[in-house]
Amino acid sequence: MKTIVWDVDDVLNDLMGAWLADWTKANTASRPLPYEGLSTNPAHELLGISRAEYLESLDTFRLCGKAAKLTPQPEVYEWFARFGNTCRNVALTAVPLSAAHVSADWVMRNFGKWIRSYNVAPSSRAGDGEEILGETKSEFLLWWGKADVLVDDSEENVAGARALGMAAVLFPRPWNRSLLTIEDALDELSKLAGLT
After folding, report:
1. Is residue 89's pLDDT more than 70?
2. How far apart are CA 124 and CA 112, in angstroms?
3. pLDDT band at residue 140, thresholds of 50, 70 and 90?
4. Per residue, what are the HEC states of the chain?
5. What contacts 56, CB < 8 A, 6 or more positions away?
6. What CA–CA distance (Å, rounded) separates 93 from 85?
7. What CA–CA distance (Å, rounded) separates 97 from 121?
8. Is residue 163 left, alpha or beta, with left meaning phi > 0 and alpha meaning psi from -120 to 50?
9. Residue 22, class by beta-carbon neighbours within 10 Å (0-12 exposed, 13-18 middle, 19+ buried)?
10. Is the pLDDT of residue 29 over 70?
11. 111, 80 contact by CB (below 8 A)
């Protein structure tokens, strides 16, 4: 049985799309940017704001209850309904520790039938202090040593997993170079996991 490691934000859900719609509504004076225009992540420069402002806005979105109401990515949820019980599924997210509880609750409410392990490679924030261990997803995967396939929207995380000898699927989002559709990416995952 293969172990699949899933990124949470922008793979299991559409955090960035929901946040951008919310941010655009609250910042009507700024230049509008369609979701498809998010050619980089983080997107602060595209929006004409500082990185600190961007992170603060994203964290506020997570902590004010809006992120808790996100719906699962429909194609991914359908994949889990079909294949979720045929492999081990693990969540690995890069979220600030201050919002990890929101993300964990969301994962367990929406995917708890299939995902039984929730892990964080903390995304650092100003003022965290040295007591917060900042490790990358690759460092976590190397330490953990049990994963077969990573599904992530970050090219850096996918490259890191592949450098460790793991298989990886780059989940298509406007800010990465994946040429696949979501359905194609999930088909590729099924093949890598030996499910089809």
Report:
1. yes
2. 26
3. very high
4. CCEEEECCCCCCCCHHHHHHHHHHHHCCCCCCCCHHHCCCCCCHHHHCCCHHHHHHHHHHHHHCCCHHHCCCCHHHHHHHHHHHHHCEEEEEECCCHHHHHHHHHHHHHHHCCCEEEEEECCCCCCCCCCCCCCCCHHHHHHHHCCCCEEEECCHHHHHHHHHCCCEEEECCCCCCCCCCCHHHHHHHHHHHCCCC
5. none
6. 21
7. 9
8. alpha
9. middle
10. no
11. yes
Residues 175/41, Cβ–Cβ less than 8 Å: yes
What is the residue-averaged pLDDT of the chain? 93
Describe the strand order of the beta sheet including 115-120 as a list of residue ranges.
115-120, 88-93, 3-6, 149-152, 167-170
Rounded to two decimals, what is the model's pTM?
A: 0.94
pLDDT of 7 over the 60 cut: yes
Q: d(Cα 196, Cα 194) in Å, to the nearest integer?
A: 6
Contact 162, 142 (CB under 8 A): no
pLDDT tens digits, 141-183: 999 999 999 999 999 999 999 999 999 999 999 999 999 999 9
What phi, psi does 125 have (nearest 5°)?
Answer: -130, 155
